[in-house]
Design the sequence.
């Protein structure tokens, strides 16, 4: 079925043709008709199946004929990267229309965002925290809102945004069309949908969470201390470009440094990086300046790179849902992609949970010319050793503080007078008031400490 069969506005069909899209994906075929009818929508779709266009196209279709100057659609996303990506998709799809949109998220100045509110752009795409910051001001009123979208609702739940979402609902009209899209449907999201939606059309709710069918998946068993070396071997072999997921921000930094030392062009993206640094890293990766982008799960829902060949799980994700979202960065829009997972013996339990969730056992791969018995320094210090080093460092800090306190106490006494001498004696020549009561030294000691 072509897009023309969905009865979308001709300007949108023209934009889709320019983008090279001829036929809707299954989620688009299922979601667009009821959304065009004004129905609330509760949709579960795997990452990379085209669900962003599934909620944007019907909204754009409705907005084309409406007057400009009023914000009528709000799209909530869990991360800055996803907000920026959705905004880019709006601009691509609406290129032949007068529709304007803006992104509202943290890490950048609020001035241009305030201007977007005051101007009344048609669509605002934002993250919960920054939206609530604006809602404190009188200019950020959304009385004319007609469409509300929650994108990646399960991720917003994971990140603790549920209370923020409820606060945002108090700032938007209750009479509206609500579209909720999620890669998985945990009970809390289903409950939220019942509270905020009116008789929604449910799509794919019973579908088991699994990566898209075009993704080739494989597991590389390897000792934890050899993971970095194996990744370098793969990058110097069959992998041209890769989005690599690490467990923590510090681990992502260390892995990026290790790859750079191995002559791999690499950048990193995580929560400790500024917004400009994250944007620069993602832009450089998309342009090919960097072959590898090391990321934490903050980016799992917000990175959309066309023709991304490989996703590598350097660390096995703890939850099967995170695995689905990570590997969904490749094989997007029914394209082909490859996802590798490096699995140490202690991570086998998490891997079994993933295999149970996706309903299949992933093939194990051994690299023939890699030395699995080699001695390698671990990428990071073992947890027990780090704890011991922290405790030792704190003991040393306490001892230094004790010595410094004793030294300051000794310096507070007049030269040649033992500590405590003069207690209860009368005032002598040159002695200030209170000296005989033992109070004469305290003010000087306090002044020394303040400096």
Sequence:
């Amino acid at each position: 079925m072509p897009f023309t069969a969905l009865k979308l506005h001709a300007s949108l069909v023209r934009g889709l043709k320019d983008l090279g899209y001829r036929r809707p994906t299954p989620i688009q075929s299922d979601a667009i008709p009821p959304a065009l009818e004004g129905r609330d929508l509760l949709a579960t779709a795997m990452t990379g199946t085209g669900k962003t266009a599934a909620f944007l196209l019907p909204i754009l279709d409705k907005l084309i004929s409406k007057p400009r100057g009023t914000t009528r659609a709000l799209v909530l996303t869990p991360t800055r990267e996803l907000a920026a990506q959705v905004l880019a998709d709006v601009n691509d799809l609406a290129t032949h229309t007068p529709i304007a949109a803006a992104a509202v998220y943290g890490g950048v100045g609020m001035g241009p965002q305030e201007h977007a509110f005051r101007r009344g752009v048609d669509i605002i795409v934002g993250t919960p925290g920054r939206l609530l910051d604006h809602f404190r001001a009188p200019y950020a009123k959304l009385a004319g809102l007609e469409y509300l979208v929650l994108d990646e609702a399960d991720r917003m739940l994971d990140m603790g945004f549920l209370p923020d979402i409820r606060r945002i609902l108090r700032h938007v009209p209750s009479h509206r069309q609500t579209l909720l899209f999620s890669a998985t449907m945990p009970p809390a999201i289903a409950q939220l949908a019942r509270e905020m939606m009116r008789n929604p059309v449910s799509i794919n709710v019973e579908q088991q969470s699994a990566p898209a069918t075009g993704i080739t998946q494989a597991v590389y068993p390897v000792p934890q201390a050899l993971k970095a070396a194996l990744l370098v071997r793969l990058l110097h072999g069959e992998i041209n470009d890769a989005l690599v997921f690490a467990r923590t921000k510090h681990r992502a930094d260390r892995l990026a440094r290790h790859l750079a030392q191995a002559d791999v062009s690499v950048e990193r993206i995580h929560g400790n990086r500024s917004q400009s640094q994250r944007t620069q890293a993602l832009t450089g990766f998309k342009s090919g300046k960097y072959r590898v982008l090391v990321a934490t799960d903050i980016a799992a829902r917000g990175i959309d790179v066309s023709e991304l060949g490989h996703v590598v799980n350097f660390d096995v994700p703890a939850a099967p849902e995170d695995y689905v979202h990570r590997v969904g960065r490749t094989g997007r829009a029914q394209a082909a992609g490859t996802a590798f997972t490096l699995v140490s013996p202690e991570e086998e339990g998490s891997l079994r949970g993933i295999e149970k969730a996706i309903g299949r056992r992933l093939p194990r791969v051994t690299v023939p010319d890699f030395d699995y018995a080699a001695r390698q320094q671990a990428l990071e210090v073992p947890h027990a050793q780090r704890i011991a080093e922290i405790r030792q460092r704190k003991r040393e800090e306490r001892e230094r503080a004790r010595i410094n306190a004793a030294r300051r106490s000794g310096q507070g006494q007049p030269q040649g007078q033992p500590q405590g001498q003069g207690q209860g004696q009368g005032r002598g020549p040159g002695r200030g008031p209170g000296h005989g009561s033992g109070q004469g030294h305290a003010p000087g000691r306090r002044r020394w400490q303040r400096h």
Notes: Residues 383-411 form the longest helix (29 residues). Confidence is low (pLDDT under 50) at residues 419-451. Residues 123 and 266 are 35 Å apart (CA to CA).
